[in-house]
Amino acid sequence: MTRPTVGTRGGVSRGVIAAAIAGTFALALGAFLLSFEALQDLARLAGIAGGQAWLWPLIVDGVILQATISVVALRDAEGSARRFAWMLLAAGTGVSVAANITHAVLTADQRVPGLVAALVASVPPLVLVAMTHLTVELIRNAGPRHDQDQQEQPPSPVVVTERRVPDRTPPALEAGPAQDHDAREASELRSAPSRGTNSRSRQERDANRREAARLAGQGLSYREIARRRGVHPTTVARWLNAPDPADERNDDEHEPDTEQP
After folding, report:
1. pLDDT, mean of residues 62-69
2. What's the pTM?
3. Count of CB atoms within 10 A of residue 140's CB?
4. Number of domains in the chain
């Protein structure tokens, strides 16, 4: 895409833009002076003192200038602000045109028809409005267009680099004889408390069984024995009906050897 050269805007040189601004400003100034003279003379005819008559055209045409600038400046503003600026511009233009026509009708030569005089008198205020608006637009658009330059510039390529993260996973440890020995010792230590607990439980059962047998030998009932031992009568019956552990051990020791010589 071809971009405008330096000192141009959209293909139009800044010199052309400056000449256009100067021309519209000159036309607006000429229209303002013609309207100013007509309105000042009308103010004198209306009874305003000569030293103050110049203020009336300054107020009327000044409203046109200010309203035109406001219309351009408030282009992107809220609707109420834009409407007020346009209303002010229309009111100022209407008053200026009507005043110029009135002055022309009152002071025109008898040889000139009133309609022609009115048309001639209405030109300066209308030209003033148009040239003022055009001058403001030219000045507003004479600056560099950053948005167009940004659209014409190709986007810079984005370079994406891949970063490798080192593997921090620890290597697997090989099991050796020492580790197997440690595992066996840990297993034996865990099983040792359970063996001790089973031995104590067996000793307690044997003691309860012998005590229950002694009390039963004294002629006490199962209920009385259970009350003294703090258990249920069925537990006492199970103790007394179970074989004596000492007898079982003796039987195991005197069991004949059945193996062949």
Report:
1. 88
2. 0.47
3. 12
4. 2
